């Protein structure tokens, strides 16, 4: 049966979830998407399904897909993150390369509509265990330009002591504190590679409005009522069910620049770990830029986190539309 190539639609959630489950069963990256995750992904405001997605269909199944959303904001470059995958039974037939070539053709128009006059650049992540994806990226002209790690720890045994700096208190996230959390995230990540500010809309859609957001497991560090640090937590029920454990994923942790080196991040992490355990979580994890200028890897290591997966970011600038 020949393949039919066409964009994804909101009605594709079940077929796409099945494809993602087949990919994870083969690649075992720990990236698990349940049906609700996929429905949320297909409904994000930053994805133009008609122009920013592509699916290879065989009968009622999706056997390959590409997903290329616009970014919530841009600087002198509009970084567009390409995600996608090919069913294990259909690999080594050129489907992955077709998706990459499609993304190179689609990116200029998508980018020009979102950020006129800004240079678009496509990024894709490849776990270091996925040699096929790395070879695909390099064969298409992408260049490795950054390295990342995922770190985790068990919530059993000894946890670090909570010791906020003088005058700093740790408060649970609340709607009243939410704008302070967004402000801290944006200011704290100004000098982080590849980061762009969250708009109020993208913050709501992707962070605190996501079905995966855990308000009771998210916290702010306050000094004289002003947020100086924040820790935002998500959980992914698809992963929890497949792994047979409950994992609290630290989606964001940031400290204002003038408060770095004073123990704010360490105190937030220690407070969160104790809360996670009290809430019944078994493990916790986070992602980190291996070249993070703030020394974050050391902070996480002192809190008992260990690297369990490494990945490479690949980038390719494309001609403007």
Description:
There is one protein chain. The strands form two sheets. This protein has a nine-stranded mixed β-sheet with strand order 4-6-13-7-12-11-10-9-8, sandwiched between helices. Strands 1-2-3-5 form a four-stranded antiparallel β-sheet. It has ten helices and 13 strands. The two termini are 35 Å apart. It has two domains: 4-149 and 313-317, Gcn5-related N-acetyltransferase (GNAT) (Aminopeptidase); 161-303, Aminopeptidase, CATH 3.40.630. Helix 1 (13-27) crosses helix 2. It has helices at 13-27, 35-42, 49-52, 95-114, 131-139, 178-188, 200-208, 237-243, 264-278, 296-302, and strands at residues 4-6, 53-58, 61-67, 77-81, 83-86, 119-127, 143-154, 168-172, 219-223, 226-234, 247-255, 283-289, 306-317. The model has no long low-confidence stretch (mean pLDDT 95). The longest helix has 20 residues, at 95-114. The protein is α+β, with helices and mostly antiparallel strands and 321 residues long.
